[in-house]
Amino acid sequence: MQGALLNVNGIITDLDRRQFAAWQKVAMYEYGMGLPGKLAGDFKGLDRNAALDRVLAHFNASTDGDARGDLLAEQDRFYGQVLADLSEDDLVPGIKRLLVALYDHYVKLAVNDPAGHGDEIIKRLKLDEFIDVVGTKADATQPYQFLAAKLAVPATGCIALVTNQADLKQAAAARLTTIGIGGADQLAGADYRVSQVGDLRYQMLEKVWEDTHEDK
């Protein structure tokens, strides 16, 4: 096992909560009324365009062209503000132990943040010494192929830690060994699955990779 690829959101820290907080600020600024907290679950896992559609639907509003771009830019500014207090306390339990173990075994590490704040987030979480490559929204169409190439590691030498079916399909198509984190309904087809990040251990990942990479 030469490389490990993973998303920032859901594996390293919870960014859905902060993205929703930024959308609440947009709603208050644009419509004079915040989004109720009970809607937070509706935004989980949405990209920014889909989240904007959800906001517009809530207020029975519509927009297009430059106005839509302005709203997305506004949300991004608010998102940058809510990231300002991000710290090591916001790490998903168990993730730093895993990243340190991978680093200590000379496994190259790449993370993906399609929202485009990955470098800032990794620095605020004090993980930058362990991470070799940070992917951005410009790389979102084929993130696993891109990250493996940036690490200069063959895809078959990498594992991907994934939390949803879309990432699982992309990682599998790129011929990475896949480790699913979450429920079996979302992650059927992963080479191995655990319930939560805290269940992951370096030795486990190495064994799964050894057992599967010959078939990739």
UniProtKB/TrEMBL annotation:
Gene3D superfamilies in the record: HAD superfamily/HAD-like, Putative phosphatase, domain 2
SUPFAM superfamilies: HAD-like (SSF56784)
Matching InterPro entries: HAD-like_sf, HAD_sf, PGP-like_dom2
Full protein name: Phosphatase
Organism: Limosilactobacillus pontis
Lineage of the organism: Bacteria, Bacillati, Bacillota, Bacilli, Lactobacillales
